[in-house]
Amino acid sequence: MSSKFNKWAGIATLTLLLSAASGCASEEPGSASPQTWSNNPSTGSILPTTPTSATSISLDIDPCELLTTEDLADVGNFDSRYKEDKDVRACFWQNSLNNGGDGFTFAVSIHDTQSIDEMRDYGDGIETSEINRRPAASTQNSKLGDCNFAMEIDDLSRVDVTITGEDSSQAACEAAEVIAGMVEPRLPEIP
Known about the structure:
By secondary structure, this protein is α+β, with helices and mostly antiparallel strands. The chain has helices at about 1-20, 170-185, and strands at about 35-40, 45-50, 80-85, 90-95, 105-110, 125-130, 135-140, 145-155, 155-165. Strands 3-4-5-9-8-7-6 form a 7-stranded antiparallel sheet, covered by helices on one side.
């Protein structure tokens, strides 16, 4: 079991190196905001208005496109399965039992209507952190070997990496954080 997490630690090192190498951008900071125009009935003039959005940018994200089998090739031969339930869309990844795989499973889930502030505590508290400067939080249940690692997409939504039923919740959280580090560069910028 521990060799599985040693592989994740090796991938973590590679992910950190790649993130550090690609961390600079030549674009100006900020976000573009389109303007629309409306008529002002009292003066007859046309005024610019800024649209407001009550929908999350997460709606355009497919959780199964946040990782690839090539991303996970160093630790196993993973297959993915998509599942949708209300405001959660998930991609379940399992290391194939064929060719000596261990069956390790994790999920990458998009919560379209829940921010990281609304994350449920698994029992051992919630810790805040960052992945590549993106706000994140994690929670674990040491009795069950469960860990949930969440990252902010916007004020309304988040993406979770969940690992359950492992021997150690600490090792599960370490692996979940590595996977989150692989997912984060594929997320849209926080508005």
